[in-house]
Amino acid sequence: MKLFTQIDYRLTRTATGSGGVVYHASPLKMDVLTPRTDHGDPDVPAAVFATPYLAMALAYVGKKWGNRDIEQGYRDDGAKWTLREMRPGAFKDIYGPGTDGYLYELPAGAFHRPERSQAMDMEVISTKPVKPIAVRRVGNPYEELVAAGVEMIPYEADDAGYQEAVERMAKRGLNMDSEELKKHLDWIRETNPELADRMSDEIKTSETTKR
Prior knowledge:
With 211 residues, this protein is an alpha+beta fold. The chain folds into 2 domains: 21-153, no CATH class; 160-210, no CATH class. The protein is 30% helix and 18% strand. The protein is built from 6 helices and 8 strands, in the order ββαββαβββαβααα. The strands form 3 sheets. It has a 3-stranded antiparallel sheet with strand order 1-5-7. A hairpin with a 4-residue loop joins strand 3 (70-75) and strand 4. Helix 4 crosses helix 6 and helix 5 (178-191) packs antiparallel against helix 6 (193-210). The longest helix has 18 residues, at 193-210. It is globular.
């Protein structure tokens, strides 16, 4: 098993199982990771989330963020990760000076795949407290993400990739009931009114097309 003193920034998945490791990141330093309910997945009870992908975990070292701030994606079965700014200055706010945090290496055997969940296929959970195998402070999250080979895509309102990200968010919004969608758009509008408006327009266009 490789600990942080030996690890290189590979983007491929670490072997899971009783002898493998998975990763968790947080702005907080903890001796034991305890299950929490503020993870945002209604299909999962209180849990500790982790991933076998180091590059994915690093995205959560800085300040807490959501899809109103950044869109996270991957291709080639996790061989390449991308982070796209969904508003100007998001990378600086979340990964800039003063946003240091901690990267945790955890025993993979303590985790399992949730049976029904909105969680990405790249994540596993534990509903019990988990003691880390190793903990490492990350002093500059942005630099470490770049070093890990993560593609950091800056905000550009007219970029085709940004519009595609808006369309993906709108598609997920179409699966929400009206009250849930309103709350979600209001939450986005708190920090990113342009995105909320574009997403709302995209949903209206999709609904009109269906009629």
